[in-house]
Amino acid sequence: MKNTLYKALAIVAISISLISCSSDDNKNDTSGSGSLILEYDNGFGTNDLILNTQGNTTSNNEVLKISLIKYIVSNVVLTKADGTTVTYPKSKSYFIADEGAADGHEFKLTDIPAGDYVKVKFGIGVDEDQWKLGATGQGDFLAQTDKAGMLWSWAAGYKFLAFEGTFTSPTVTTPTPFMIHTGKTGTDYNYTEVTLDLPTKALVRTTITPTVHFKIDLSKIIDGTNKIKLSDNNAGGMGAMIMGGANLPLITQNISAMFKVDHVHND
């Protein structure tokens, strides 16, 4: 009986060892290509974002209730541990992050060369070279952004980021609309790029699809290095509408600092 038990345990141990070895072989196999997912998780300060009902307080003691946050993610570049880079094709590299849409949080990059990735770069908005290709050069993305409400007009171009809701402040006690849209205004193009190191390597394999999980602090849009008071922009009973002027480049600088990589899933 004991011999039978020992044999059974030995078989189990060998099986576990073989499975472990096979798993290690898969993780070490950097041939072929795979996929990688970028996940955008919006919050305000240290809180998860709840649209419409959550009061979010800035350092200027303004309280925002956010009804909409959308931004264009573009021009993804991945860096391997050996320093080589992989530029995702621009024609496939435009996504609309949308807190209010089920498909607006995760974006899958396909046909990524297998490897260990340690850094990611992406744009917020549509780069000027792409915009200069004209309406026909934008392909299906033009219709996609128009449908998503992220196109001002072809002449004016895209909204790179749309941030909307209501606010109150010590001087504005009735909930008042605010609307912040970044994009091309006059001589300011307001496209920005974000480069982030990964806390652990993203292991792209034919059998592994990593997820890079970003935490986004939306408070930094107006409460980052540059402090923007909505109450100072509340004019003519229309609410605080920031779509140009001196504040927009300052907001663009803030946007590049609102992203961080929280963790990487290698599943």
- The chain-level mean pLDDT equals 90
Task: Please write the string of helix (H) and strand (E) elements.
Answer: HEEEEEEEEHHHEEEEEHEHE
Regarding quaternary structure, what we see is single chain
Approximately how much beta-strand content do the residues carry? 35-45%
Distance between the termini: 41 Å
Number of domains: 1
Estimated radius of gyration = 23 Å
What does this structure look like?
The protein has one domain. It has six helices and 15 strands. It has helices at 2-28, 128-131, 134-137, 140-147, 220-223, 247-255, and strands at residues 33-44, 47-48, 56-57, 63-80, 85-87, 94-98, 106-113, 115-124, 151-153, 157-168, 176-183, 192-204, 210-217, 240-242, 259-266. The strands form two sheets. Strands 3, 4, 5, 6, 8, 9, 10, 11, 12 and 14 form a ten-stranded mixed sheet that branches. Strands 1, 2, 7, 13 and 15 form a five-stranded mixed sheet that branches. It starts with a helix and ends with a strand. This is Copper-binding protein MbnP-like domain-containing protein. Residues 1-22 form the signal peptide. Pfam families: MbnP. Keywords: Signal.
